[in-house]
């Protein structure tokens, strides 16, 4: 893979062009690429990635985005509507997670740039509040091994020791007793997933909540992936445990509006049980020559277009719209899971929700991917154990997709049985399943990243 994937078709800007190009020419080139790339997921064979997949919905949000794309919402006196949009996005999300059940605080939140942004803001808030209230100087944070790598990144950035709790290999849920045994006076908090990225399973949030109350530490629930679909599954009567502010130990929740919230990429929410947690990570600089500076989050300037489009998506769909989409997704996921279970050679990991992961004890599961990839299927790869997962989104709910999955999976299993445990051509990379993988997967990734960086730093000759 190259940093210049279209070099054989279009000129590469290896230097800043002296003369600008015609707008129509630029737009035509970009439109061609966009349409070609959309074709890969429009079939409904791509796991996750495109959560809505409705071009009419995207067009509607594009119209809204265009009204505010040029606005910097850092300047709220010029664009007071941004305060309305942001406040109402947070109010609607707090309502979704039953913030009205909170009697020991004033629930608030932030709109961030994505799931990693929401998670890092929560970890920062936990670190700062632990230092302020408890004098913690050697902070540590506990996450299940299945917790998102954004927690590792946040702890790395903020100088927090990360303690990874093991998970039950059958249920894929965190070992609560291990968590209990590893809490000490420097623990600033812990987290559980609803649901985790790898397996689509939900950690025992109620047990973690009880432990949080008992230990006097905050609990973050990572609902970045499931936050805007699991509550509607609960409303539909599905067996989804409570994981929100109805539990007294839940201190904060992250939920991505740009996933099953059907907003554009670049927005997420992080909610706090009480404003003291949010306020603890505010940044103030009162003696700068440019004036008093205050930032509620790590970002400074932000486009008003993303806030406005997120608000518009939520109010246009309403709970009824989200609920109907959730039903179609859960029904589709169940049908696809049933197809997996129909093959005794395959095994679904844990008790998944809308996202499911499967492996095999009889053959390398990546052989299934090798067979199905040429047919347009793009799964996400797991490791320890090797597995494939499908995050079911709206494109999979199209007519004919489940039937194609059933037929192709049957052929793929037969192919994989012939290959057995011999090395497959693909392997696990976050966000997809990479080709050309083998036992030296880590070295491959390092080489690939080095190649990308080298190409960007030392541009090829004209």
Share in helix: 40-55%
Largest sheet: 7 strands, mixed
Give the SSE string.
HHHEHEHEHEHEHEEHEEHEEHEEHEEH
Q: How does the overall form come out from the CA principal axes?
A: globular
| Spatial strand sequence of the major β-sheet | 1-7-6-5-4-2-3
Kindly summarize this structure in a few lines.
By secondary structure, this protein is an alpha/beta fold. The chain is built from 13 helices and 15 strands.
Report on this model:
By secondary structure, the protein is of the alpha/beta class. The chain folds into two domains: 81-313, 3-Layer(aba) Sandwich (Aspartate Aminotransferase, domain 2); 328-451, Aspartate Aminotransferase, domain 1. Helix content is 41%, strand content 15%. The protein is built from 13 helices and 15 strands. It has helices at residues 23-42, 55-68, 81-96, 115-134, 149-158, 176-181, 205-215, 230-235, 275-279, 304-341, 366-372, 401-419, 441-457, and strands at 108-112, 140-144, 161-165, 187-193, 219-223, 250-255, 268-272, 283-285, 293-295, 347-348, 355-359, 380-382, 387-391, 426-429, 432-435. The strands form four sheets. It has a seven-stranded mixed β-sheet, sandwiched between helices. The protein has a four-stranded antiparallel β-sheet with strand order 10-11-13-12, covered by helices on one side. Strands 8-9 form a two-stranded antiparallel sheet. Helix 2 runs antiparallel to helix 10 (304-341), helix 4 (115-134) crosses helix 5 and helix 11 packs across helix 12 (401-419). 42% of the residues are buried. Mean pLDDT is 93; it is low at 435-441 and 456-462.
């Amino acid at each position: 893979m190259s940093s210049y994937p279209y070099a054989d078709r279009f000129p590469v800007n290896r230097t800043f062009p002296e003369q600008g190009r015609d707008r129509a020419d630029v737009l035509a080139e970009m439109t061609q690429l966009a349409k070609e790339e959309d074709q890969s997921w429009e079939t409904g064979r791509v796991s996750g990635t495109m959560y809505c997949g409705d071009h009419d919905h995207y067009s509607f949000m594009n119209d809204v985005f265009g009204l505010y794309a040029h606005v910097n919402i850092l300047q709220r006196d010029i664009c007071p509507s941004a305060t309305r949009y942001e406040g109402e996005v947070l109010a609607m999300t707090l309502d979704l997670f039953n913030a009205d059940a909170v009697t020991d605080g004033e629930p608030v939140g932030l709109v961030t740039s994505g799931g990693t942004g929401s998670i890092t803001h929560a970890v920062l808030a936990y670190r700062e509040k632990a230092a302020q209230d408890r004098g913690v100087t050697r902070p540590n944070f506990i996450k299940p091994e299945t917790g998102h790598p954004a927690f590792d990144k946040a702890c790395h950035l903020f100088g927090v020791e990360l303690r990874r709790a093991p998970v039950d290999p059958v249920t894929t849920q965190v070992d609560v007793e291990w968590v209990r045994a590893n809490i000490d006076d420097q623990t600033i908090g812990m987290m559980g997933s609803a649901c985790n990225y790898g397996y689509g399973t939900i950690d025992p949030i109620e047990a973690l909540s009880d432990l949080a109350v008992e230990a006097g530490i905050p609990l973050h629930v990572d609902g970045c992936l499931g936050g805007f679909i699991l509550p509607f599954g609960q409303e539909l009567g599905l067996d989804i445990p409570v994981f929100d502010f109805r539990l007294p130990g839940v201190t904060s929740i992250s939920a991505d509006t740009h996933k099953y919230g059907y907003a554009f990429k670049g927005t997420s929410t992080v909610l706090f049980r009480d404003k003291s947690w949010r306020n603890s990570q505010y940044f103030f600089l009162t003696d700068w020559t440019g004036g008093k500076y205050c930032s509620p989050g790590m970002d400074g300037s932000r486009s008003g277009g993303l806030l406005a489009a997120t608000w518009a998506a939520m109010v246009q769909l309403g709970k009824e719209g989200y609920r109907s989409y959730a039903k179609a997704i859960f029904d589709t996921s169940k049908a696809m899971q049933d197809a997996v279970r129909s093959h005794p050679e395959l095994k679904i990991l844990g008790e998944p929700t809308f996202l499911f992961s499967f492996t095999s004890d009889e053959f390398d599961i990546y052989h299934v991917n090798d067979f199905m990839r040429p047919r347009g299927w793009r799964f996400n790869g797991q490791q320890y154990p090797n597995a494939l997962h499908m995050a079911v989104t709206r494109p999979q709910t199209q007519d004919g997709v489940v039937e194609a999955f059933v037929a192709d999976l049957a052929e793929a299993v037969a192919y994989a049985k012939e290959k057995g445990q011999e090395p497959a051509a693909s392997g696990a990379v976050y966000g997809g399943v990479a080709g050309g993988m083998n036992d030296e997967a880590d070295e491959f990734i390092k080489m690939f990243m080095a190649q990308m960086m080298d190409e960007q730093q030392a541009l090829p000759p004209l």
